[in-house]
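Q: Got a minute? One more chain.
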Amino acid sequence: MKKKLLLPFESPREHYKAEATVVWCSDDRFSLALQVFRERMGWRWMDLIRMAGGARDLGTLASQADADSLLSHIGKSVKGNHSPEVFLMAHYNCGAFSREQMDPTDEEDHFFAEELHRGKQAVEEYLSVNALSAKVWMILCDFKNIYEVEA
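A: Always. Here it is, folded:
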């Protein structure tokens, strides 16, 4: 194999305990929000599951195969890296949800609250069936703020 060094770095080899598992949308417009959120939460180690729509694959628009795959990733983080919390994120103007409305409305709030609640229920059920435990949070982002969606 021929390889060319792109960037030197050092990463600890010791195993870590994730302070959280975060399911975040791959939409790069929300990368800064993720960075700020992580800093505000004070996490050194988190397991990041980044995919189009964030928690979308746990809601009404997802196939069972998509949901099973995401739940498996979450389970591996909670079990393998002892993550005590799972954060499920969705955001306004999300193409993966086919919701390209720019401004939040009551209808959009209701839609995302329902989708995130379905996701939370799916994660809690999966964790329970697999004898795992973690607190599940629901996060909704717009282009200025990150909100906790209450249960």
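A: The chain has one domain: 20-148.
Q: Perfect, thanks.
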